[in-house]
């Protein structure tokens, strides 16, 4: 099939493939695939910062709308204040949910070492046997 963009394809060292009306361009030298760099810690910190910012702005907006509601004695202003308070509360819940999700990710991460905690251990024997065992452990 004659392509009117053949000269452009040659100068860019690419090969155009026709699929229906779409043209998919392929690099003839090498095809590289991008690896998805998933960084949950970076995403967590970014989301956490955004949520903190939203909470702070929401608190300031609540303060301002309550002043307006008190000055105007308008039922609508109080309704808006109530909705804003609910929205800020929802954002704080999202912040807690984000922390819980991050803890679950850290628990399931095979790279993090698992700590083993032993509670309520008991030695059965005499104090002399215990001292001998402890001395062997420190040598």
Give a nutshell description of this structure.
The chain has 139 residues and is mostly helical. It is built from four helices and two strands; from the N terminus they run αββααα.
- Mind telling me the CATH class of the largest domain? Mainly Alpha
CATH homologous superfamily identity of the largest domain: ESAT-6-like
State the CATH architecture of the largest domain: Orthogonal Bundle
Mean pLDDT: 79
The first-to-last residue Cα distance is: 83 Å
Residue share in helices? 55-70%
Q: How many domains?
A: 2
CATH topology name of the largest domain, in short, is Helix Hairpins
Summed up, the helix count is 4
If strands are numbered along the chain, what order do they take across the biggest sheet? 1-2
Bulk shape: flat
Q: How would a textbook summarize the main sheet?
A: 2 strands, antiparallel
Q: Report the uncertain regions.
A: 30-36
Topology readout:
Layout: H1 6-12, E1 14-19, E2 22-27, H2 40-72, H3 75-108, H4 127-138
Antiparallel strand pairs: 1-2
Describe this protein's structure.
By secondary structure, this protein is mainly alpha-helical. It folds into 2 domains: 33 residues, no CATH class; 69 residues, Helix Hairpins. It is 62% helix and 9% strand. The protein has a two-stranded antiparallel ribbon. Helix 2 packs antiparallel against helix 3. It is flat and about 85 Å long. The termini are far apart. About 5% of the residues have low confidence.
């Amino acid at each position: 099939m004659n392509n009117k963009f053949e000269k452009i394809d040659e100068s860019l060292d690419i090969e155009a493939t026709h699929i229906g009306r779409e043209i998919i361009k392929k690099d003839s030298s090498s095809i590289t695939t991008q690896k998805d760099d998933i960084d949950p810690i970076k995403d967590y910190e970014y989301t956490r910062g955004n949520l903190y910012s939203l909470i702070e702005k929401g608190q300031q907006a609540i303060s301002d709308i309550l002043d307006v509601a008190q000055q105007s004695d308008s039922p609508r202003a109080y309704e808006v204040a109530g909705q804003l308070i609910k929205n800020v509360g929802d954002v704080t819940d999202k912040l807690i949910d984000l922390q819980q999700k991050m803890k679950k990710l850290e628990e399931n991460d095979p790279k993090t070492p698992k700590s083993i905690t032993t509670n309520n251990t008991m030695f059965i024997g005499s104090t002399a046997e215990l001292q001998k065992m402890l001395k062997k452990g420190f040598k």
